[in-house]
Amino acid sequence: MLRGSKVGLRARHEEDIPILRAELYDDVVNASRAEGSPWRPITPGSNDPRLVPDDLEPGRVPFSVVELDGGALVGTAALWGIDNHHRSAHLGMGLLPAARGKGYGTDVVGVLCHYGFVVRGLHRLQIETLADNHAMLRSAERNGFVREGVLRSSAWVLGEFLDEVLLGLLVADWKPDLRA
After folding, report:
1. CATH H-level superfamily of 2-173
2. Would the pTM of this model clear 0.85, i.e. be above it?
3. Which of 28, 45, 121, 128 ranks highest by number of CB atoms within 10 Å?
């Protein structure tokens, strides 16, 4: 398990799947804002890659996020779009509703940076998020990510186009202790 100050990132366990399905993916509004495609229901028992990781998929590393105190599941996180030639990747996360507003997001982003830069030897990490996702923007910027641009009206979400913010962080600019 990779450890931050509040959370740990570990492999997905079978018992995580029903919780993530019910609290993240079955929530139409949350899932529509988090995914890059239209919401659709997930058939129980399916091998949907958002829930059931494919350990052989080299371009995506999914994690379950757990509290360090007690080990309760609080969300999901991933490094995805991993490009070993350009040494870059994207990162994303989703916290269960009860876990939001507790500083876990900042810690998750910091642990994903550690994984990307130290464990994987990447050069650049990138985040794309909706412009009104203030929690993710704060979590990214607290970890040193820089706003590199706004993709105007680029995301179709529940009947309207929304802006997305592109943030980037280079390993040379990363300061692991910024997470405070």
Report:
1. Gcn5-related N-acetyltransferase (GNAT) (3.40.630.30)
2. yes
3. 128
